[in-house]
TrEMBL record:
PANTHER family: 3-OXOSTEROID 1-DEHYDROGENASE, FUMARATE REDUCTASE
Keyword Ribonucleoprotein attributed: no
Domain FAD-dependent oxidoreductase 2 FAD-binding intervals: 22-463
Gene designation per UniProt: ifcA_2
The protein, known as: Fumarate reductase/succinate dehydrogenase
Coiled-coil region: none
Amino acid sequence: MSSSPIRPISADAVDTWDFEADVVIAGFGIAGVSAAIGAAESGADVLVLERTSGGGGAAALSGGIVYLGGGTRVQKACGFDDTPENMKTFLAEALGPGVDEDKLDVYCEGSVQHFEWLEACGVQYKESFWSQPGWECPVDDSLMYSGGENAAPFHTLVPPAPRGHLAQVPMPRNGEQGAGHVLMTTLLAKADDLGVRVESDIRVQRLVTDHTGRVVGVSATRFGKEITVRARGGVVLATGSFAYNDEMMQAYAPRLYKRPAATVEEHDGRAILMAQALGAGLAHMDACEVAFFCDPQLIARGILVNGRGQRYVPEDTYPGRIGHLTMYQNDNQAFLVLDEDAYEEGMAAPSSSPQLRRQPTWVCESVAELEAEMGLPEGSLTSTVELYNRHAADGADPVLGKKSEWVKPIGSPIAAIDLRGMTGGFTLGGLRTSVHSEVLHVDGDPIPGLYAAGRCTSGLSAGGYCSGISLGDGSFFGRRAGIRAAAG
Ligand SMILES: Cc1cc2nc3c(=O)[nH]c(=O)nc-3n(C[C@H](O)[C@H](O)[C@H](O)COP(=O)(O)OP(=O)(O)OC[C@H]3O[C@@H](n4cnc5c(N)ncnc54)[C@H](O)[C@@H]3O)c2cc1C
């Protein structure tokens, strides 16, 4: 499965160590920088090894949504009541079934404190709420819905609260300064202030263990030269997902094979393999974030039908949930059907993803004509639209529960946008870790000296996803990894 040797090296075989620190961290994205700050704040001497020429990882390119709640300052200022219990109830439904209850507990209980920690690191949040459907936020607001909390079926479970927190971005927005970029430059600067050392262009390849089996360092390559790095306290793995490892994708997440999105090529699964070679267990390897490549401002104003002409999701929900249901339950077949007025309105609405606005594939005068042109089974789309329109006349959607503000009868001319195969994403499964980010052996015990966080681990998701969970659990459990590793 691996092109270069992956099994651990014995420390006895190491003649000289090229570098040494209390805590050695592989990867300088969101999990790595949070681990570095956590360890340095605990008084450790910290060294980060980063494969590229600088820190940031996928996180610096990201939308920067961090999933936090339970009553943060920004939630309160924007008028939303939230509690750790409500947050937990929602996430257990949205990310499950099979979520790690212990992790979910500490995450929800510690969420307000984690928000305050990010603020103490220098991340600035504005007390303003972005209310529009979207993948991200196109202005400088710091709070948005990012998981379908305010849509069916979740909005009746607990009172909806937005939990997507975004670092305030400079206005007017420029392409390079999204909330992910702002979040990461702030955290990287904080690590630098704390004296964290960084060695770039180093690709961590294998773990080094002592005669007791404890992890005491790593072996890596730098421009083809092998180097060894000693960790007096512990090693933290934070190198990202396996979205770009073809063999692992075929084995664990075949539906997303060759469909990576919202990730970077450095996510090659190496840390997972390195730890597996030492006996580490895995969890939820099939869990994925699934992006759906269409502007949510258009989706909410139409109806989404599958290859049988039937609706399958309330169109005003989180677009990642739409992607998930499309890919996993509807053979990746989706068509957005809407009339001219709805299309024009959606195209004119403020959008965080104008590149995902799409031209209609078919435009017709009647539903029957459209159905025929799309090649759908005769009567399928006609009966779907007839049923939708019957209730839409009263502003209701009893079939799937789309909120009345988005429900209007579909008139003529009527169009459909072909969205078949318009999905992609990244993996959420990985190393099984404890709530303290210790990597767990297949026997359930922590592997001494080895910690991990971010997308090389199984974090909060057991299958479902909400935007902000990856930066959320990456930073939360990354920080914990650093603190624990610093304690030796
Ligand atoms: C366009 C886009 C939008 C996104 N939006 C969001 C969002 O709004 N909210 C959200 O929660 N998530 C979002 N994500 C996903 C999120 O950014 C990632 O899932 C998250 O950054 C993963 O954290 P990580 O620390 O595991 O990996 P990263 O942040 O990618 O960091 C991993 C680091 O490890 C380095 N590395 C890899 N291999 C090695 C090695 N062998 N040795 C040393 N270093 C190595 C990499 O170069 C990288 O710097 C988005 C991603 C993209 C690309």
